[in-house]
Design brief:
By secondary structure, this protein is an all-alpha fold. The protein has helices at residues 10-21, 28-57, 64-67, 72-82. The protein has one domain. It is elongated, with a radius of gyration of 20 Å.
Length: 83
């Protein structure tokens, strides 16, 4: 595992320390990892909703050549942005 140092204003640092002291998290790192996991899930969910909504309202055709090593999500976003 690698480490990442972050700077927080005093009020945020105190909040993290309070959350750890409450027993919900063992360390500040556990708290931050939990926040990152929640953010990733929220981002994935929003992206999925955005793409599904777009697919319901438009007909999109994607050829294998358009993918050419790119992710399906990036190709879909690009196509939707052009429409």
């Amino acid at each position: 595992m690698t480490s990442l140092n972050i700077s927080l204003p005093d009020p945020l640092k105190a909040y993290v320390e309070e959350r750890v002291a409450s027993g919900d998290f063992g360390t500040p790192s556990e708290f931050v990892r939990n926040l990152i996991r929640q953010d990733k899930e929220l981002w994935r969910s929003r992206l999925e909703t955005e793409l599904l909504d777009a697919l319901k309202t438009r007909e999109l055709v994607i050829s294998p050549e358009e993918l050419n090593g790119r992710s399906l999500v990036s190709v879909l976003r690009e196509k939707l942005a052009r429409q």
